[in-house]
Hints:
The protein is mainly α. 69% of the residues lie in helices and 0% in strands. It has helices spanning 2-19, 25-31, 40-57, 64-78, 80-84, 86-89, 101-107, 109-133, 147-165. Helix 3 runs antiparallel to helix 4 (64-78). The N and C termini lie far apart (55 Å). The relative contact order is 0.09.
Amino acid sequence: LIRFSLFIIFFWFGLLKPVGISSAEALVLKTVDWMPFLSPTGWLHVIGYWEMLIGIFFLFNKTIRLAVLLLFLQMSGTFMPLFILPEITFQTGFGPFAPTLEGQYIIKNLTIIGCAMVIASRILRKDENFSDNYPDVHKDGKTQLSRVDTIKEERFYDEMECCKNGIKRIS
Length: 171
């Protein structure tokens, strides 16, 4: 449920940016105005596509790690306005104790970070438990057969060889 919720949030809000109908557009453009290589609008589109990728990556087990990594990189930029645009993110005269609507919009991302941490901890826990539950499988995915399994495998191949040669094996 958390992963699907993150998909909806990131894909939906990300899609609004390159389409040009994001309510965060003005804030994003002011935040990235100083960045090199692209125009602020170019960066707005990159951020939008980046967010859409984060959302998509949360849908699939194989890409969750990448989703979490991209999310944490994206969040470092998301919090920038709190520091470089305090006149927009905080009410005048109240310091950091009275965020504006824009500031609240940014600060609520702590909840998203918390959700990502829950997902990441479950992934790490699964990795740790995998070797506990399957001691004959190494982390690289290769199987190490136990002595009993090795003997069974040798008997199987002996029987196959006998069948090919038309010899009945006596156990």
